[in-house]
Structure formats: C-alpha cells, structure tokens
Give the backbone structure.
Amino acid sequence: MSRIYKMRYLLLRRFTQIGLLFLYFSANAYGWKILTGTLSSSTLFQTVPLADPFAILQMLSAGAVMGMDVFIGAAIIILFYGIIGGRAFCSWVCPVNMVTDLANWLRRKLLLDKAERKVWVSRNARYWVLVLSLIVSAITGLAAFELVSPITIFNRGVIFGMGMTGGVLFAIFLFDLFGVKNGWCGHICPLGGVYSLIGRFSLIRVRHNEPNCTLCMKCKEVCPESEVLFMIGKKSTTVNMGECVNCARCIEVCDDDALGFSIRDFATSKAKGENR
Amino acid sequence: MNTQNPKRDTKPKITERRRFLTIMAQSVGLSALGGLIWTGYVEEAKASPLMLRPPGAVPERDFLRMCIKCGQCAEACPYDTLLIAKPGDGRPMGTPYFIPREIPCYMCTDIPCVPVCPTDALDQKSVSSLKDGKEVLDINKARMGLAIIDTESCIAYWGIQCDACYRACPILGDAISIEYIRNERTGKHAKLVPVVHADHCTGCGLCEHACVTEKAAIFVLPRDVAMGKPGDYYVKGWSEKDQERIKERDINSLQTKTKRSEKSPQDYLNLDEGLFDE
C-alpha cells in the first residue's frame, strides 16, 4: 500500500495521459462525442473548443486567416494553464512524456548518468527552437513544428493508426536514453517552452518545507528540470519557475515530507534569500 | 572599464556584454543550421500536390497554412473516406485526404466533415448555396478534384460497352455524360463513351471507385493539376458569359513590351532596325 502511495501522482498522471488518449481514440473508433479531435485542436462535449496556442501561433506566423473557434480554444487553454496548471501539460497530458519517462527511468537503472560523456545542451535551447519554428513557419507558409511534432504524431497515431510513428518515438527514446538526459522534454521541445512561458505565474506549485529537509537530494536527482529546485535545503518557498512541470516526482521521492503541492507563495517569490 | 592603462586595452576584455552577445550569436549560428534543415524538410513535405482534400477545402497553399491537423473532419466522416496522413505516407503529416479508388467521397448532403473544422480550412461558405434567402449546405458545389479519363485504357473508348463510371456518378448526366461517337474500326457501330464535364464534377471519385479496369481508367486529380488555363488572350466570342471576362482583365498586363513594340510600327519599319540584321 505504501508503495502505491509513493507512486500516487505517477499513477494519476498516467491515468490522465492514457485516459485522454483513450477519449480521443474512442471519438474516432466508437463515435463517443466526449473529446473529439487531437491535442492540436479538439472539441469537448461537442461545444467547448480547445486549441494548442503554439499551433495557432505558428499558423499565424505562416499567414493563415482562421475561424474564431480556434482562438477561443487557445484562450481557454492559456487561461487554464496560466492561472491553474502551470506547465502541467507536459507531465499530465503530453503522451511523449511516457516515452521520455521510460528513457529516464532506464537511465537511472543502467547508471548511464555516471558513465557517459556529457553532451551539453542549453536548457534555453527550447526557446531558440520556439523562435526558429516561428521563423520557419513564416518562410515556408506551413506550421513548422506542427508538421514534425512527435507529440501530435503520437497522439494522431493512437487515434488514426500508427504508420511509422513508432520510429519517431523510438528516436526520441534513444535520444533521451543515450544522448542527453531529459533531452527532448527538458531541452529541445518548443511546446514545453511555450507552456513554461504560459505557466510562469500559475497558482498550483510545489512547496518546499526546509526544516523537514535532510538534504538527501533525491528530489534533485529525479527532477526533470532540476534547476527549478534551487531552494532545496536553503529556504522554504514554492517553486516559482515556469519550467516546473508539476509532475510531483520530487514529492513522491521525498521521505521526509519536505515537499508537497500548495498555492504559489507570492510573498517569498519576490524576497530572495531571506525569510524565516 | 579600465581606461587608465592603455597597454591592457590592446587585449580586448571579455566583458559581460561581449559574453552575452557571443552566446546569442552562437545560438543564432546553430539555429541557422537547424533552420536550414528544417525549412528544407518542410518545403519537401509541402511539394506533394496529388492529394485530394475534403469538400470545401480552400486552395492547397492556404489549406496547408490553415489546417491545424486536428482530424475532426476524418472523425466526422461516416464512411471512413477521409484519412489522416501518417509518418511514412510521404504526405504532409496530419492533414486529411482521401484515396477514391479505396473509399470515395459519398457526398453526404449534410456534409458532416465541413462544419466541424475549427480553422475554416474547410470553408462552409464554398459548399453552401442560397435557398429561400438562407444558406444551406450544398455538396454539389464541392470541388475536391476533377475526374480525368485515360481514353487509351478506357474500354468504352475501345468500343466495348461499359458505363460503370456514368452509373456511379452522383450527378450523372451533368458531371459525366455518355456521348455517341462513330466506331471507325467497324465502320457501322457506335461507341458510347463517357465524357467528364468540369463545370459539374465534384471530384468525389465514385467513378474511379467503380471503374472496371485493373487500374482505373477514370481517376480524380486535384483541380489545379488536372486543369489548364486559357488565359486572357483567348475568349469564346460566341459566349456572352465568356465575354464578361474581357471586362475584368487587366489591360496593362496583356501588352507584351519588346524593344520593337515600344516604337510605333511606322518608325521601326522605316528605320528597318533589327529587321535585316545578321
């Protein structure tokens, strides 16, 4: 039981990820009208439009003139993640997260971190890819990242048939396993960058309770965006960086109850260093 | 920073600003390479013109811009006609298309695939017509493609009796008609041959689906691939409707300007410039 309790957020995340994939799949396969479409743009209960704000941005950059639905849809998504979820899309919704999590887990099991030669890629690379995708979209007149995004390729593969989707995912898997730790989700993926920007000021945050901390650093080891945990053992505050994906791996791995979910701490987010 | 000592200034100092600009420049350099490959790939993916799009699709260039790849049109299609391009299909990934030889478009009168499009890449207006002052969906206005007949392999053109495509056509008589032509080989028979009329053909592909030959002798191509364009020089003098085109055309774009035509005919003939050279 305690083992399951230790994995409670992981199970919940897999539940939402697979559940959403199943709803998308069943819309096509069984005609359920709960959630139709794909992660690029979908319709909830045949009324509420939802749309990927980054896809819209690329399409605008490509010069598309579009109907109102997608703008309303993108606004709903931006408001949800901007106010509540933060970058939760990446760890609670995105199906590629399951692939990269598997790679990351194997990395730890195979002790790859200890042995391999480090390839340094800046965590900011995603913002460069983001800008680049907008430029390429403008040049080619086609949403550039949407065309190659493994996220929607995987998503569509589940709904409409896989084709060579496995190859795309396997490449991402190999890159994350042997290439760069958290290479795709934590460095390259521009959609992660977009949600980092959108979720910068969201309310749901991981909170560190410093007095409980025993400095075992398990949280930093497991965190896919470890720089957001800069305060571990230093001060009690919430993780306020947009890059945090709210995956709760740090909470699960903590044996000392020093981490948990909470509402953003506005007071300490400004005053650096001193509190308590 | 340090201006007192001129000797130290000869060696450029790595300031914070220089470091920042250098890193930015490095990222720009790496992005340029990435962008080159990426742009090349996207341009390649774009250049796949033989895709038949769902009814109401805006012209291909705009369609690629506007399609958000949500697949809702394909989900709405009751016949599973619409496919979504997968990796390995060699078509722009995620966009909808159909292969009429496998499953043609059955031209549903309520066109379920069009209203679900969130970006209007499938334009409802283009498949609607006015009826009693109200816009109603009209699938006959769809222009997904144009059926083309390869008269060399069409057995009706050989003289064998076949009207499978004509019978399959949802707008038979208008989009495909059967014409009598003389069978020159026997000299005493007629051939009953199908002829497609671009004014009415929607490109649904039911004819291609029905064609009895091993590889369809009638097949649908995207309109911009299948059709020529006479341009503004040629006008049907006998057609009032075609005469209208003359009024709309841009006169300036029609006048070819050469070295000779810049002068009046009298001048260049009298000066015999260029006429008897060489």
